[in-house]
Automatic annotation (TrEMBL):
Keyword flag ATP-binding: yes
Organism: Histidinibacterium aquaticum
SUPFAM superfamilies: PurS-like
PANTHER family per UniProt: PHOSPHORIBOSYLFORMYLGLYCINAMIDINE SYNTHASE SUBUNIT PURS
GO biological process per UniProt: 'de novo' IMP biosynthetic process
Family per record: Belongs to the PurS family.
Role of this protein: Part of the phosphoribosylformylglycinamidine synthase complex involved in the purines biosynthetic pathway. Catalyzes the ATP-dependent conversion of formylglycinamide ribonucleotide (FGAR) and glutamine to yield formylglycinamidine ribonucleotide (FGAM) and glutamate. The FGAM synthase complex is composed of three subunits. PurQ produces an ammonia molecule by converting glutamine to glutamate. PurL transfers the ammonia molecule to FGAR to form FGAM in an ATP-dependent manner.
HAMAP family documented for this protein: PurS (MF_01926)
Record's subunit section: Part of the FGAM synthase complex composed of 1 PurL, 1 PurQ and 2 PurS subunits.
Entry keywords, A to Z: ATP-binding, Cytoplasm, Ligase, Nucleotide-binding, Purine biosynthesis
GO cellular component terms, A-Z: cytoplasm
Origin superkingdom: Bacteria
Protein name: Phosphoribosylformylglycinamidine synthase subunit PurS
Any one GO molecular function term: phosphoribosylformylglycinamidine synthase activity
Length: 75
């Protein structure tokens, strides 16, 4: 079984990496980009029978800083 976890900064949390990407895109001539949010994608190869609840526990304990980040699990 595979699971994909997408981790993003929560709304309202400053994203300096996203802002740097937005600025760089403008410098390269890509006008019209008003905002960029940068996150991470984690792909997990899981043993058969691993539950989504177990993946959620992985996110809560290690994969996401739930104070400033949110996450989405896709299987």
């Amino acid at each position: 079984m595979k699971a994909r976890v997408t981790v993003m900064l929560k709304e309202g949390v400053l994203d300096p990496q996203g802002e740097a990407v937005r600025h760089a895109l403008g410098a390269l001539g890509f006008d019209g980009v008003e905002g960029v949010r940068q996150g991470k994608v984690i792909e997990l190869d899981l043993a058969e029978g691993t539950t989504e609840e177990r993946v959620r526990e992985m996110c809560e304990r290690l994969l996401a800083n739930t104070v400033i980040e949110s996450y989405r699990i896709e299987s």
